[in-house]
Write a structure and sequence with these properties.
With about 525 residues, the protein is an all-alpha fold. Helices cover about 75% and strands about 0% of the residues. It folds into 3 domains: about 220 residues, no CATH class; about 40 residues; about 230 residues, no CATH class. Strands 1-2 form a two-stranded antiparallel sheet. The radius of gyration is 25 Å and the shape is globular.
Length: about 525
Amino acid sequence: MNQARAILWAQWRSQRNFFPRRGIGWTAIVGLIWYGFWIAGAFAVMLLTSSPLSSSLSGVFLLVFLYWQVVPVLMAASGASLDLRKLQAYPIPFSQLFWLEAVLRITVAIEVILILTGAGIGILRNPTLHPWDALGLLPFAAFNLVLGVGMRDTIARVLARRRIREAAFFLLILCAALPQIVFTRGRGSAERLRALMARGSWVGWPWTATADFLQGHGQLRALSILAVWLAGAGLFSYWQFRRTILFDTEAASARASGGSAVSSFVEDFIERFFRLPSMLLGDPLGALVEKEVRFLTRSPRFRLVFLMGFTFGLLIWLPMALGRQGASESFLGSNYLTVVSMYSLILLSEACFWNFFGFDRSAAQFYFLAPIAFSRVMIGKNLSALFFIVLEIGMITLVCGLLGMPLHPRTLAESFSVAAVLSVFMLAAGNQLSLRQPRPMNPAASFRSGASGRVQAILFMIWPIAFAPVGLAYLARYAFDSEAAFFGVLAVDAAIGAIVYKLSLNSAVAAAEQLKEQIVTALSRGEGPITA
């Protein structure tokens, strides 16, 4: 494993050299807050498993499996992973790279590892069980780690293919949302859910076998089942890993030469659409907006979160809004369009608000050399963000109309007004954060990695402040039972937001002049052999 140790050492040095003393405090604060909740959950699981185990333990492990495998895909997050493009030139055996990649899957679901650790400690303290029963958690954890490699590699290759990327994504979203819709709307869903969570599920599932082993029920059979699942996951994931190493991403995403008359007409229409900002706004502002629109629409990473806004965003909230009779009278049911719009804003926030120079990377130095005011550059970025926000909410509205959901002028005005007010405050904060905490992003990577601890801590403070004006508007509607009060408060919020945006823009332009060298250096830096 000398090569694996060399990879880890190179990763440590690349991170250590660039961040010698920055961000450690903020990372510790965010980690203490976030993982503190999960440690509390692990403590609760430890208390649960310290007493005689219940028959629903297999359902708990099913939820663990779904969280470990499905949630990272739906959040388009990969955690830490090997950058195979930088490692292909070295004579490192595929097997070493594979096992190192499998270990890195821990970073995708550290929360689940904490829960499993709590369960293991509880089993050790359980007087009715043998301490060796806790070892049943190890093959289950290894199965999830190894399977995660194959799942990620398969989805990453599918999303890299130009012709089937979006179709495959829609299929993935439908498969992920189908169980929730069935359990929420189908008859007898409560009984089926209880049966699935109970121990009576099929003994061949890995989560059921793990529960049986921990409770001492047919341990030899359970261990054999887990061994078969682990071996199958290992073969599948190793096969997919080898294919990913030999996969040519650039060739798969390349545009085919030539085309029919229909495709030529479509390309001509798209080209005219891209030229609209320059025709309406004039140069240089129009050219800046056109450049952003062209680039973001061609970025697989941005297209993924944009598609998630009006597909997964609609499906994930729909069962909760229509699950029971009378649910339409609840807040979520009566404000469904607004809630989905807010969710889409959160998905788009990284590229549109908090780090809008990330995709420019080293090319951002052009903004400081070009003979245009830097304020124009930032306004162009902000107008591009507003364009995609309006387009996203328009797509959400269109899909709701196609699904036959009731759309009233009031709900349309509410969703667009709330999104506009929230966007103004988020743009004001994003102008500062994009300059003071710039981070390079890979536009070709469909999956994203987590932000630094400092940025996460800042976002913990920004989100409540940004949502506070909108919350006041809803509070005014509740207190006065008046739509006029709601939109009146939103109008005041918009005026205040315009002032805050103007002050933030002036401050950001002044900060850009002082921090331009640090900004270009931060955006130009490369990553180590492990992307995190």
